[in-house]
Amino acid sequence: MTAERPVNLRLGPAALNGLMPMHVALTAEGRISSVGPTIARLAGNQPLVGGWFFTLFEVRRPGGVLAMRDLMARAGETLHLSFRPHTEIGLRGLALPLATGKGMVMNLSFGIGVTEAVKVHALTDADFAPTDLTVELLYLMEAKSAVMNELRALNRRLDGARSRAEEQALTDTLTGLRNRRGAEAELARLVATGQPFGLLHLDLDHFKQVNDSFGHAAGDAVLSEVGRILRSVTRKGDTAARIGGDEFLLVLPACPDIDTLTAVARRVLSRLQKPVDFEGQPCRIGGSIGLVMSADYDPADVDRMIADADAALYASKRAGRGRATAGGPGAGGVDLSAAGA
Question: Which residues belong to any copy of the GGDEF domain (predicted)?
Answer without folding.
Answer: 195-329
